[in-house]
Structures are given as structure tokens and as C-alpha cells.
Amino acid sequence: MNDADIKRISRLTAIITQLQSKRLLTAGELADRFDVSVRTIYRDIKALGQADIPIIKEEGKGYSLMEGYRVPPIMFTENEANALITAEHMLLKGTDTSLSREYEAAISKIKAVLQHLTKEKVDLLSNRIAISPAILHSYQSSSLTLIQNALTSFSLLEITYRSNHKGELTQREIEPFALYYSLKESWLLIAFCRLRKDFRMFSLEGIVKINKLNSSFQPHKLTLAEYLDEKKKKFDTPDTLLS
Fold it and tell me: pTM of the full predicted structure?
């Protein structure tokens, strides 16, 4: 087997992984991802089909894997595993306990499929990384996972919020839109506030109480990039809170 064959097998495996991680991908997107021609992607998709991988083509939309089809766990390279371990240390020292707990569980599953030698190197690296206490925030939240779920399911949230400016408490019904990480404020939730009838940024530190309601809302057409650009026009930094 020559280098070209090895490279193609690696690409075919990566294409399956990409299709498993996203609902739809076009040939152009796959070509850009792997730095090959669209014609090459067509040949790869045909080869995968001949290998009984159930790839579905939706005319004018792209490719997807048949619903319910899953490939066996993918082996991580040493560099990929190292990147995940480094991110683990940053998250475990972060300000949200729910995110740290879920990431720690995911890392445990990843470690379980690592080859023995890679696992030894990953454990060594894990013991040689430390996060300076000087950059840690003085508070912790536990609502980030709940917010993520509400954001992706378009579920309404009810919060009790303490404003940074006046310190007063207000009850809000909000439509979660996006998450933004700021070195000054840590995690911020961008949401449409029904009280203010506009988009606002909420510091997770200021959220005293939060509940996910059984009501949903229509997704907003505004993109995150458009929102941040608009904020930059009004303030020196998009991190500026206005709640």
C-alpha cells in the first residue's frame, strides 16, 4: 500500500466522521475541508457506497448518513488527544460546574478508546498542565448546560437577574440566542429579553435563579455575527452589558 492509498483511506474515514457529526454536507464543503477537488469527493462518496456505507444524497442539499447508522468509535491521534486534555484543564478550572461535569464525563469516554501508548502520554501531559489561579474568576455558576439545551431547543427561560449597574433584581422571560465568552465577564448569555423587548447580554454571575419553561419561541433570523457587529457600532467592545 503506497502513501496515496493510505492518504485516501484516511480521508474516507474522516468523511464518514464528518457526515456522522453533521446533518448535511455538500460536496463543496467536503472538498474544502480536505483540500481536494469536488470530483475527488464524488469518487470518495461512490467508493463509500460500494463499501455498504449508507450515504444518502439529497438533491440540491448535500449528503448525509442514514438515520440511526453509527460507525464504531474513531481512534484519536496523539495530537488530537493532547488538544482535548489541554482543553479539559481549562474547563475544569472554569466558572460553570455543569459544563465541567459534562466535559469530564466526555473525556473519560475518550480515554477509554485510546491506544495504550497514547493513553500513557496523555496521562503524562495531564499531570504537567496547571492553570494560574490569578486568572480564575471568583464565582461559579451551574446553569450553562441548561442554557445550552434551551438554546438548541428554542425553549423559553425564566430568570431572576441582578444587574451589574444598580444591583437590583428583576424577573425576566428570555429567549436564549447565543453564548459569548469574555475574559472580563466570563460566560455571557445573549438573549431576547421580553421585559426590555430587545436583545441583551446577561452575565451568568448575575443570574440568581433560572428555570426552563415548557414554552418555545420562533428562532430569530438575526445571526450572531450581525448582533456583535451592531454592538461594536454602539460601544467600544461588544462585551458591554446593557440589561
Answer: 0.66
- Concatenated DSSP letters for 121-174? HHHHHHTT----GGG--S--BS-HHHHHHHHHHTEEEEEEEE-TTT--EEEEEE
CA atoms within 13 A on the CB side of 97: 5
Enter the CATH code of domain 144-234.
Answer: 2.30.30.520
User: Which CATH architecture does the domain made up of 3-65 adopt?
Assistant: Orthogonal Bundle (1.10)
Query: What are the extents of the domains in the chain?
Result: 3-65, 78-135, 144-234
- Report yes or no: 199 and 191 within 8 Å, Cβ to Cβ: yes
**CA–CA dist 13, 7 (Å, integer):** 10
pLDDT, tens digit, for every residue of 158-187? 999 998 767 789 999 999 999 998 776 678
Task: Report the C-alpha gap between 48 and 230 in whole angstroms.
Answer: 45
* Cell numbers representing residue 237 in the block: 467592545
Residues whose CB is less than 8 angstroms from the CB of residue 193 and which lie 6 or more positions away in sequence, other chains included = 172, 173, 174, 199, 200, 243
Mean pLDDT per 10-residue section of the chain, whose length is 243 residues? 68 82 84 90 90 87 82 71 83 77 82 78 84 65 90 96 83 95 80 95 91 95 91 76 70
Q: What are phi and psi of 235, to 5 degrees?
A: -130, 165
Sheet with strand 198-203: strands edge to edge: 198-203, 186-193, 169-182, 155-162, 207-216
